[in-house]
Design a protein that fits this description.
Helix Hairpins, extended, 24 strands, Rossmann fold, Alpha-Beta Plaits, six-stranded parallel β-sheet, 22 helices
């Protein structure tokens, strides 16, 4: 597509046209925006051949230089994507961009989490992601190769996306209609009848369809609730502190000290006694020297006592003659202090040595053996590999790591680890009986070679390969059609592009060979979501609301109802594809094709309740709904989405109001 001439309010600037930058440009093109770019050196070839035609302007130069940014019309850009491979360049360019355009949205590539948080506070309107770590969950899920399609945490709860094929005897088979599967802990995302291919978009299924054997259902569910547990733990901690204060206030201190002494081990007791003895000797020595020599002050007396306790007896009395007159009993006390100090220091060294050795043995704890069967072989333990390993460890799935270099302290000790030449290491990981092989090294050619070796050793294993170049990935996919070939930058680019429009991308996963983004919105005045019902947002833009929060002071609701109306300041988290985000950004809601015809209400009470249900679900004014119920039979002249309309029919039926749907004659259906 040819870029429009001139610069508009929808201009975006991409700095760095490596693999990630080129994928970002390709995705931005789908939003029909004007794209400018800066690249340090003109690329000799493009991974995406048509990319130069999509750019309104390409500036060759250093994106950290204000002059170069001005040439790229940064003053008129809405957002800037800083995605070079050098984090220092990205951060420096972010400061330069902010100084030139105080309102521009900054999206940078950076793995420095602490620094990113500080930069967000200082620069504002800022988002930072690490391109190699964003797709880690996608690789982990591909490795599992089971029904789990995605997982992430929200508000202390673990949410899981599951793709399940219904079998005879399954709890839903022939017993449930699809809409009945939507509960306070579950939402249906996708449905395909037996033998049919799943449809990519959300809500492209009939709510009243009955679940049959062989059908495939994809849904998101709350797999683990942690919020209540966290609150209980917090309350428990608070209770223990209150109990401790009451105990100290009302129980004799002697009893508490005696209880603490009984619960301590021998080393702790020796350390406590040594400290008590040394403090007592220090204070006693200071007092005695002050009493014996009245011409010195208390600080000098304490200094003498401290020197003796630290083994400085020879510094005071090491000469042939005493430097000052001292009584025999004070001389003996000084000797005793030096001896006690030497013993105390020895005990202190012993305690520290014991702690250091214990920590060292903990670091060198022996790793578990390589699993025999049904495990995942993870090859390549760079930043992506370690993140994938952490995720698989969290899911408690057996795995073994393979690395060309020794890194015992960088990989969790719970994971078996084989180091050395990767080709030789494959013989040590029970490859023939492995469930999956995930190859994540930085060399995609090496990944292909290792993948072919793994396929030869275990033809039935689930093979996952990491690539960078899209054309190379397509070639590998043709060579290994049953392998999962994932491009790290292609996955990450969707999160970067979504962030340029002001959204916060919390996570991403692959569903039906498409990337689904877990996206957070904070509703602002005048944006395309303000004033809409959640049902209108869901069915109109093709996104799935999974969390709603009225304000930061209210508790968040998971799997919220469609009846909630969004207001400025509300927080909303949705599942969306890049197309869904584009619809939200451009306000391009899908057409509503259905009208509601209300036939009869069984009583006046039913008519009253029915009017409330119509206003609540359709979003129309309550007076319009009451007028409709007073003129039955009649049609509600408010177009609805099919899922929304069918739910309204069901709700009216519950209050004894009969109704049905008719197609909207104004849309040509």
């Amino acid at each position: 597509m040819e870029a429009e001439a001139g610069i508009s309010a929808t201009s975006f600037l991409v700095c760095g046209l490596g693999s990630l930058g080129q994928y970002c440009v390709r995705l931005l093109r789908e939003f029909e925006v004007t794209i400018n770019a800066i690249e340090a050196i003109a690329p000799p070839h493009w991974e995406i051949p048509d990319l130069p035609n999509w750019l309104n302007e390409l500036v060759i130069g250093d994106c950290r230089q204000p002059k170069i940014l001005e040439q790229a019309n940064i003053h008129q850009c809405r957002a800037i994507l800083l995605v070079t491979s050098d984090e220092r360049v990205n951060i420096a360019a972010a400061f330069a961009a902010r100084s030139l355009n105080p309102n521009i949205r900054l999206v940078i590539r950076s793995a420095q989490e602490n620094l990113n948080e500080l930069l967000s506070q200082q620069l504002g309107n800022f988002a930072a992601y690490e391109a190699t770590q964003l797709p880690a969950s996608a690789f982990a899920l591909a490795a599992l190769g089971d029904s789990t399609q995605g997982f992430f945490r929200l508000e202390g709860c673990l949410l899981r996306v599951v793709k399940e094929q219904i079998s005879t005897g399954q709890r839903w088979c022939d017993r449930r209609q699809l809409y009945e599967l939507n509960t306070s802990t579950r939402r249906v995302l996708n449905y395909a009848e037996h033998g049919a291919s799943p449809i990519d978009a959300f809500y492209q299924w009939e709510p009243n369809a009955r679940v049959r054997a062989g059908d495939t259902i994809t849904y998101i569910e709350i797999a683990e609730r942690l919020t209540n547990l966290a609150i209980a733990q917090e309350d428990g901690v608070r209770f223990r502190w209150q109990e401790l204060i009451r105990n100290l206030a009302w129980k004799p201190l002697k009893h508490k000290l005696n209880q603490f002494w009984q619960n301590s081990n021998q080393m702790q007791r020796v350390g406590i006694l040594s400290c008590i003895v040394m403090v007592s000797l220090l204070l006693a020595g200071a007092v005695l020297f002050k009493m014996q020599y009245s011409d010195i002050n208390l600080q000098e007396a304490f200094n003498i006592s401290l020197i003796l306790a630290l083994g400085g007896f020879d510094e005071l009395f090491g000469g042939r003659q005493m430097p000052f007159q001292i009584s025999w009993w004070l001389y003996l006390f000084s000797i005793s202090m030096t001896v006690a100090g030497t013993i105390f220091i020895g005990i202190l060294y012993a305690i520290l040595t014991e702690r250091v050795l214990a920590a060292r043995f903990q670091f060198l704890k022996r790793r578990p053996p390589v699993p025999k069967t049904g495990h995942i072989v993870l090859i390549g333990l760079g930043r992506v590999g370690r993140r994938v390993a952490d995720l698989l460890l969290e899911l408690k799935h057996p795995l073994v790591g393979v690395s060309a270099t020794a890194m015992p302290l960088e990989v969790p000790s719970e994971i078996p680890l084989v180091t050395g030449e990767i080709k030789d290491s494959l013989a040590k990981v029970n490859l023939a009986k492995a469930k999956s092989v995930v190859v994540l090294t930085d060399d995609e050619v090496a990944n292909l070679e290792i993948g072919l070796m793994a396929r030869a050793a275990n033809p039935s294993c689930n093979l996952v390969l990491r690539t960078v170049d899209q054309r190379f990935a397509e070639s590998v996919a043709r060579l290994l059609p049953d392998a999962r070939v994932l491009g790290a930058y292609a996955l990450a680019a969707e999160a970067f592009v979504a962030a340029t429009f002001g959204e916060n991308i919390l996570n991403l996963f692959r569903l039906n060979n498409r990337t689904t983004l877990v996206t957070e919105y904070i509703i602002e005045a005048g944006d395309t979501l303000e004033g809409r019902l959640l049902g209108e947002v869901a069915y109109g833009y093709g996104v799935v609301p999974i969390l709603y929060q009225r304000s930061s002071y209210d508790s968040a609701r998971l799997m919220p109802l469609d009846d909630i109306r969004l207001h400025r300041g509300d927080r909303l988290v949705v599942l969306a594809t890049i197309e869904g985000l584009r619809r939200v950004e451009q306000g391009m809601a899908l057409e509503r094709h259905w009208l509601l015809r209300v036939e009869k209400a069984m009583s006046q009470e039913a008519a009253f309740e029915g009017a409330g249900a119509i206003a609540r679900i359709s979003g129309c004014d309550i007076s319009l709904a009451r007028t409709l119920m007073n003129q039955l039979p009649s049609i509600l002249e408010v177009p609805l989405y099919k899922h929304q309309a069918l739910r309204l029919v069901r709700e009216l039926s519950k209050v004894q109001v009969s109704s049905h749907l008719v197609s909207d004659p104004g849309d040509g259906c």
